[in-house]
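Recap from last week: sequence in, structure out.
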Amino acid sequence: MSFEDALRALEDVVRRLESGDVPLDDSITLYERGEALRQHCQKRLDAAQARIERIVAGPDGAPAGTQPFDAADR
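Predicted structure tokens:
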């Protein structure tokens, strides 16, 4: 499941739970589904963050290498 599909499904779960119209047993099932979707989204985000790299320019302006995305903020 793509990140976007999982996020849409998670938003739907949240809307349904917030509506207050779902019986208790169904709410528990929805909550469990929501937690699984949240974990899936978090794993996808963590994997994407690990892949993001910022290009570091050398003195001549040409790419000289890469560094982890969050290293530039340190």
